[in-house]
Write a structure and sequence with these properties.
Layout: H1 4-22, H2 25-42, E1 45-46, E2 49-50, E3 52-56, E4 63-71, H3 75-83, E5 95-100, E6 107-116, E7 127-134, H4 136-147, E8 152-154, H5 159-166, H6 172-183, H7 187-197, H8 200-225, H9 235-254, H10 259-265, H11 279-286
Parallel strand pairs: 3-8
Antiparallel strand pairs: 1-2, 3-4, 4-7, 5-6, 6-7
Helix pairs in contact: 1-8, 1-9, 6-7, 8-9
């Protein structure tokens, strides 16, 4: 084949670039599968089904309203038991209900309840929320009542998010973005976390992968069917141009000097010097504080 000498170096560039990109996409996909397998094995099952979990989803301490989330196959049954009703509320509509202890029948509180039928919920499972008053006694009594039901257990830290991952509602990059959003202290951290949680990075990596797979397929097609009239003559030059663009994009992405990590974690700086030489004044100036 006349252009045989072009195949190996060009194909090598495709593979080399693909290996760089693998650090993002393939590693994420493999991590997703591995974490999903490990997480599934660590889940507690009740009667052959994944147990239903509950937890306080809002902040701790005294507040006007506390949100208690319930997720799992027994979420509907649990909601009917604690509200002493026969029918579930309309999906995604808040309705006022009295909350009871399902064992003793004692009234615990009165608040809003919401029903989310799977898979259209945060976890991808049947879920519901109880919006009760945020006093410690009210919260503790409702949590204790939920824990008395068979097959219903208190969620571990991050278990709702883990189930969202297991059910394909979030990938690991989006899970990291969600954690960053919860811990964000500045507007810049908030914006970065929102972009990541919305899947911006995952979509970027997926687009890179699709473009590289297409380049690889075109090169393989030219090698196998290069003498066929159905193969365009300029296909190699198009692949080479596309690989060059991707290579530049990947290298620029890797050369960001970890700006995202510094924005998320902050930078620790020590101002060192002899006494009374202006260290505090410098710090105030940097922080734009008036002395």
């Amino acid at each position: 084949m006349a252009n045989a000498k072009l195949f190996l170096p060009l194909f090598g560039r495709v593979i080399k670039t693909f290996e760089k990109q693998t650090r993002f996409t393939s590693t994420i996909l493999q991590s997703n599968r591995l974490y999903s397998k490990m997480s599934s094995e660590n889940e507690v099952y009740y009667g052959g089904e994944r147990s239903t979990i509950y937890a306080l989803s809002s902040g701790h301490g005294k507040c006007g309203v506390a949100v208690i989330r319930i997720s799992g196959s027994k979420a509907a049954e649990t909601l009917l038991q604690v509200t002493k009703t026969k029918d579930l509320p309309s999906k995604r509509m808040a309705i006022c209900r009295t909350i009871y202890d399902p064992i003793t029948g004692h009234k615990l509180d009165k608040g809003l309840v919401l029903w989310f039928a799977g898979p259209y919920s945060f976890t991808g499972e049947d879920s519901c929320e109880l919006h009760v008053h945020g006093g410690p006694a009210v919260i503790m009594s409702v949590l204790t009542a939920l824990g008395s039901l068979p097959g219903v257990q208190q969620a571990e830290a991050g278990q709702f998010t883990k189930r969202a991952f297991l059910n394909g509602k979030l990938d690991l990059v989006e899970v990291e973005g969600l954690a960053d959003l919860i811990h964000a202290e500045t507007e810049a951290q908030q914006k970065q976390a929102l972009r990541q949680m919305d899947g911006e990075l995952s979509q970027l990596y997926t687009r890179w992968r699709k473009r590289l797979v297409k380049c690889t397929a075109n090169v393989e097609a030219y090698i196998d069917f290069g003498e066929d009239e159905n193969i365009e003559d300029n296909i190699l030059s198009e692949v080479e141009a596309e690989v060059g663009k991707l290579q530049n994009e990947l290298e620029n992405h890797l050369l960001d000097k970890r700006r995202g990590e510094r924005l998320r974690d902050g930078v620790r700086v020590a101002i060192v010097g002899k006494p009374n030489v202006g260290k505090s004044s410098l710090l105030n100036k940097l922080c734009m504080l008036h002395t």
